[in-house]
Amino acid sequence: MMHVPLAILLTWPRVATANECLSKYTKTDVCAYAKKMQTEMAPALPMLISSNISVRSIIAIGPRIVFNATWAQTDAEVDAKLLAAGVSRPVYVQKIDEMTKNYVCRAEELSAFVRLGGEIQYTYTTVDNFPVANPLVALCP
Length: 141
Description:
Elements: H1 6-11, H2 18-21, H3 30-41, E1 47-48, E2 53-61, E3 64-71, H4 75-85, H5 89-106, H6 108-115, E4 119-125, E5 131-133, E6 136-137
Parallel strand pairs: 3-4
Antiparallel strand pairs: 1-2, 2-3, 4-5, 4-6
């Protein structure tokens, strides 16, 4: 059974309409492309994307692809590192948002999807299931 984080459920969009699924520029069905990416990537999960972050699941929701990623740290460990570095959680979340956008917009397949009108969202949680950040990338330069 797939675990869907509460953060996704709270931001779950309504059912996509045909207009939301068609790229403004190419008339590509972005929703079908999202579903195809989900189908192709899901068998490879979980997937380590950095030394301490693992993508656990992928969900296609209309024109949005949501990656559920887990950090190999507890919430207390994250707080301790932030305290030691003198960084507030809002500043940390902003940095995560920026790093996620940079990653998505540099990854060829993900940035192409966003440029067609799709969206990429990551829901980052700690290993003890506390939310860290939920960056959404809807535009790439």
